[in-house]
Amino acid sequence: MNLTTIAVILMNMLTTVNVVLLTELLFGVTVSDRQKISKHCTAFGFCLFLNLIITACELGDTTQFLLIFLSMAVSVWYLAGFRLSAIPYLIPAILIDTEFATVLGLFDRLLSLEKYRFSLGEGSWTPLEGTADIFLLLLLSLCFYITRKKSLNIRLNSAETIVVTIFMLFLPIIDTGMNVIIEQSGRFTLMLGWTAFICVLNIALFYGVIHRNIARSYRQLSEDYKSQYETALKGIGKSSEMAEQDMRIGHDMKNHFIVVNEMLAKGAYEDAADYLGNLQKQHYPHSYKATGCKILDVLLAAKAEEIEHNHIELKVTGDMSLFDFMEPMDRTTLFSNLLDNAIAACLKIPEGNLRYIHMQTAEMGNRTALRIQNSAESHAPESPKAHRIGIGLGQIRQVAEKYHAACETSFVNGEYCVILLFEI
User: Fold this and answer.
1) How are beta strands 118-120 and 123-125 bridged, if at all?
2) Strand partners, 422
3) Beta bridge pairs of residue 415
4) Other beta carbons within 10 Å of 57
């Protein structure tokens, strides 16, 4: 294998990596943090293996392109948790990668670098065209760092994806026609103007789309932080109140037992029995046991008054520390929305009827299951969509998608159930 062959393989791998990263950054192909490194290594290792086969077999250009596209499709399918719906996003991602090289090619002509064109295999590139994927990889790495550090989501919606795709499809056609005009006229000012126009057009498109998503992401983050802060503040206050209450009860009980022991020591058995009888009638407010997840403990403490006041039976079983692999914000979003939806459903049941919320978790091999069941109106419509109580289910599904968890909902005989299955 000579240096030219190695260079071609590296260029193909750079293109593949950039296209896959673009689907993650802009089109919502997500990989859970715990599996990010291992999954990417597996996906790109497969692409490299396929590239080596392509090189060894000396296939034609069309066959090579199809196989490289296949490697990209398999990588995205694998990274997206085997979702076929993620594969179509390869098209706009490839077009963006190509457009980036096209823009750098304009600068090649502007700076008269075309005379330094070099050949690799059956193709040839100008200096900036040949290094376009390196620049793009650096740019994508910077974008990933910023969005992760600031918890931003710049994923394009369906309409934005269509606009970007159409733009990327038509711009190369216009660029080709303009190249002919520039070559025939040989005017530097025309070349400079066209290069500036294309650059401004690209920047305006992506700045407009991404800035709108950043603004929307910040608004959502602000609302989430505000809601979770208020809930946490209430829960922490309630937890502190419960802790003080438990200490007070413990201190009182100690004194009660001292009195009873004195009575028993003096042989006043009837008095001791009466004293204990009166003590048993006293009401001590309920405090929740630790679930293993501090975030869930705080949320339960915050909602304790509402749950008890509305006579909702709450049962939490299993070790909720199993979900420590999730980011705190995601755990808060998941548990708060599950509880809010369940409480909202219980409140629709007439008073006097059974109201309950049962939350449980269990380990099954390399999987962790979370199930929450709650009573709901028995005469609810039969349509599955009508049973999606609460707007929080969308946020629950977003968390599930982020960690590639299966999320199932059901409504049977007056009971609503949400099951989440995480692969660890």
Assistant:
1) antiparallel
2) 368
3) 375, 412
4) 11
For residue 205, count CB atoms less than 10 angstroms from its CB and return exposed for 0-12, middle for 13-18, buried for 19 or more: middle
Strand partners, 374: 357, 416
Copy the structure tokens of residue 388: 């999606």
AA identity, residue 275? Y
Under 8 Å between Cβ of 72 and 20: yes
CA distance 265 to 289: 35
Place of tokens 């609503």: 416
Distance of alpha carbon 257 from alpha carbon 276, whole angstroms: 9
279 class by beta-carbon count within 10 Å (0-12 exposed, 13-18 middle, 19+ buried): middle
C-alpha distances in Å from residue 241, one per residue of 124, 245, 246, 286: 73, 6, 9, 12
Interatomic CA distance for residues 33 and 55, integer angstroms: 33
Asked if residue 284 has pLDDT above 50, the reply is: no
pLDDT in tens, 164-192: 899 888 887 777 777 777 777 767 777 78
DSSP 9-26: HHHHHHHHHHHHHHHHHH
Tokens of 202: 């690209």
Helix (H) or strand (E) holding 416, with range, is strand 415-423
- Domain spans of the chain, in order of start: 3-226, 288-424
| pTM exceeds 0.90, yes or no | no
Of 27, 35, 19, the residue nearest 73 (C-alpha) = 19
Q: Which CATH architecture has domain 288-424?
A: 2-Layer Sandwich (3.30)
> Cα(176)–Cα(106) distance, rounded to whole angstroms?
11
Report how far residue 106's alpha carbon sits from residue 120's, in angstroms, rounded to the nearest whole number: 20
Q: How far is CA 421 from the centre of its chain?
A: 15
Mean pLDDT of 101-108: 83
